Fold this sequence. Notes:
6 helices, 6 strands, 3 domains
Amino acid sequence: MNRYSSFLKKIVYAAGLRDQLSLAFRFAFVLLVGIVGFPIFASTAFAYNRSAAVAYADKWALSNDPNYLHYSEDCTGFASEAMYAGGDQQNRAWHGDKTSLSADWDVAPDNYFYEVNQNGAHLAETVNSSNSDYWNSYNATLPGDLIYYDWTGDGSIDHMAFQVNAGKAASDPNNPGWSFTGDLMDQHTTNRWHAPWNDIEYNPNYSITVIYEVSHKN
Length: 218
């Protein structure tokens, strides 16, 4: 019996309900308070450590963590790894390891739906090239938050990046004179470390791209 089960048992005894609770009700009660080894839904018992999440993203932005399975398009898996490093708890919907990755962990539109509808995140701002905020050096979110990109503006999310600290962007070897100072992101698929949050410098479709800035739960 682990400490959570012991704690639950004490609650049941204290309430004088030991002999009155059916097995089904006990199971429902356990799920309700979130005390299961592998929760069905996202856990809210742990605070999100933004600094730890950002440190992970910066460490692995240009390489693959061997503790996880990686596909050629692994942008969302990389962001999920960073969120997990920041304290998000794996569950039946959102999970990843060396052998398997769930869709909510590894597929950008699935992850967006999971974060906003099940994991307590919220959409902070949606921008495109006709919006002045799209061109700003700083966006509406914080380090440890999430950035989703619809490259063609068709309403389908195609890519995901992880926002890290603000500052001067890493230099572009293909454009030595280019510089950027503002909010920065790390990403995979095309691995980038400290790139501009809006990805304009690297995105040939910037004029039709829609960006969803999502604030992770704290």
